[in-house]
Write a structure and sequence with these properties.
By secondary structure, the protein is mainly α. The chain has one domain. Helix content is 68%, strand content 6%. It is built from 6 helices and 2 strands. A two-stranded antiparallel ribbon has the order 1-2. A hairpin with a 2-residue loop joins β1 and β2. The longest helix has 27 residues. It is rod-shaped, with a radius of gyration of 24 Å. The chain starts with a helix and ends with a helix.
Length: 124
């Protein structure tokens, strides 16, 4: 009997009833942390960039791609927060003297930094 292209490439079949079903498995991928940034980007890909999502998923590269996005976004977020703290003059001295003022200004900076990272990296 003539082999199919799938069999020629090393694929195998399982007989289930009267049917031959191909044995398909995804390659094992290393486990890496996917946090909030990665989850947001994943949801964006699923909803708005379906072809990219399916391509990454079926190629087995989705988790590593999302982990890379997570790392880059977190680094960018921290860098923006530090730069904004310096520009606005937020110091440890302010934190020690007027805690509520420091908390309010830091919250504002973090919200702004989150919006920047979302726009630049997550939802594009």
């Amino acid at each position: 009997m003539k082999k199919t292209i799938f069999e020629e490439m090393g694929g195998t079949y399982i007989r289930y009833g009267g049917y031959l079903i191909p044995c398909l498995t995804l390659s094992a991928e290393e486990q890496r942390f996917i946090g909030v940034w990665g989850q947001r980007h994943k949801r964006y890909l699923k909803e708005h960039k379906r072809a990219v999502y399916i391509t990454l998923l079926t190629s087995g590269r989705l988790d590593s791609y999302l982990a890379d996005i997570e790392e880059q976004a977190q680094e960018r977020f921290e860098r923006i927060v530090e730069q904004m703290k310096q520009v606005q003059g937020i110091t440890e001295q302010l934190k020690a003297e007027i805690q509520m003022e420091w908390v309010a200004r830091m919250n504002n900076i973090q919200v702004c930094a989150r919006e920047i990272v979302d726009k630049e990296m997550i939802y594009q």
